[in-house]
Predict the structure.
Amino acid sequence: NGLYMKNTDDNLCGKTRFDELLSIVDGAKLLISTEAGVVHFRHFSSKKKSVVLFGPTRIDVFGYDENVNINSGICDGCEWISNKWREVCIKTNNASLCMQTLTPEKVINSIEI
């Protein structure tokens, strides 16, 4: 499929069925993901901890207590403010500033070992 992710042990992109994805997500010790469907599945299937990156969506609406919910602190969620909120940042008229400034260091530092 042409997808390659550096620094991964196994790249399963294009190699798993949906039911296998759900099994992996449910069985993982920790899930690191953007706020999306797999996070909600994990919450309702096992309530295991996830590290969830929030951008345009709001932590107070979509965050779960068992998770480490983080955002860049630049915005407080702008979903549905415009019809293109998923593609265009209302502050920059470009890529989402809130996601661009959510650094890997901030994500790694949020993980409790």
In short: The longest strand covers residues 31-34. The chain is about 30% helix and 10% strand. The two ends are 34 Å apart (CA to CA).
